[in-house]
């Protein structure tokens, strides 16, 4: 079965600094990979997704992620963080024939210092 | 319309009550999902509906009863819940359950069982 690991429970960055959130997956074939963001008490919003092709994926709100098969990783990056980016970030994996069932990582809580 | 609408936003119910959660989307999506999210945890899949038929039940207790009356509407009927069922219940939809398109989530119903 597929699984997702987000090694960092909490990350604090200063506003304007760069950001990288880590995500590692476990799956025998090429997975479908997603990053979602959740503000307190809210639902999840899709930031970006990777299915195939170009391994550098651009998303909304200035986020990007890079799929690295050799490292089984799909890290999320942003060159300059804004205070409004403070939220919980979830990496998720889906698999072919999985009925569009997503398995979510445990999340990374991002705090932005002004 | 690019939203998934969930009602109510908050619900407090006793252990002997019967209540229902409602989810609606008008994006023409043919797959709809119920997820449960406990505090500080990732969402966990409960049910998947594809073309108005239940396709995945993740061994959810029978006190949770899903219903999909039409392609735009998804209900979750609740009966005889336990305090440990208190959580954020998230509805999501996607174009199809046949592949991994990614979800559009609603903002959730915060359920408290007393």
Please explain how this structure is put together.
- The complex is a heterodimer of chains A (114) and B (114).
- In chain A, 0% of the residues lie in helices and 51% in strands.
- Chain A has strands at residues 3-5, 10-14, 19-21, 24-26, 32-38, 44-50, 56-58, 64-68, 73-78, 87-94, 103-104, 108-113.
- Chain B has 114 residues and is mostly beta strands.
- In chain B, a hairpin with a 6-residue loop joins strand 4 and strand 5.
- Chain B is globular, with a radius of gyration of 13 Å.
- Chain A binds chain B through residues 32, 34, 36, 41-46, 49, 51, 90, 94-96, 98-102, 104-107, and chain B through 4, 6, 31, 40-45, 48, 50, 55-56, 88, 90, 92, 94, 96-108, 110.
Topology:
The complex is a heterodimer of chains A (114) and B (114).
Chain A: E1 3-5, E2 10-14, E3 19-21, E4 24-26, E5 32-38, E6 44-50, E7 56-58, E8 64-68, E9 73-78, E10 87-94, E11 103-104, E12 108-113
Parallel strand pairs in A: 2-12
Antiparallel strand pairs in A: 1-4, 3-9, 5-6, 5-10, 7-8, 8-9, 10-11, 10-12
Chain B: E1 4-7, E2 10-13, E3 18-25, E4 31-37, E5 44-50, E6 53-57, E7 64-70, E8 73-79, E9 87-94, E10 104-105, E11 109-113
Parallel strand pairs in B: 2-11
Antiparallel strand pairs in B: 1-3, 3-8, 4-5, 4-9, 5-6, 7-8, 9-10, 9-11
């Amino acid at each position: 079965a597929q699984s997702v690991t987000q090694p960092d429970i909490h990350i604090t960055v200063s506003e304007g600094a760069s950001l990288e959130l880590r995500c590692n997956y476990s799956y025998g074939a090429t997975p479908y990979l997603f990053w979602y963001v959740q503000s307190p008490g809210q639902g999840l919003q899709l930031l970006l997704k990777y299915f195939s092709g170009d391994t550098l994926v651009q998303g909304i709100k200035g986020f990007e992620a890079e799929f690295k098969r050799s490292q089984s990783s799909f890290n999320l990056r942003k060159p300059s963080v804004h205070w409004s980016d403070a939220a919980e970030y979830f990496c998720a994996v889906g698999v072919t024939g999985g009925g569009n069932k997503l398995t979510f990582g445990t999340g990374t809580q991002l705090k932005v210092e002004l | 319309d690019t939203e998934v609408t969930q009602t109510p936003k908050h619900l407090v119910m006793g252990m002997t009550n019967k209540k229902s959660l409602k989810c609606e989307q008008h994006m023409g999506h043919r797959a709809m999902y119920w997820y449960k999210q406990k505090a500080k945890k990732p969402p966990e899949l409960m049910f998947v509906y594809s073309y108005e038929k239940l396709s995945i039940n993740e061994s959810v207790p029978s006190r949770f009863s899903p219903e999909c009356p039409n392609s735009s509407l998804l209900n979750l009927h609740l009966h005889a819940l336990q305090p440990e069922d208190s959580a954020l219940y998230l509805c999501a939809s996607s174009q199809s359950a046949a592949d991994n398109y990614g979800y559009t989530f609603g903002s959730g119903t915060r359920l408290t069982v007393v």
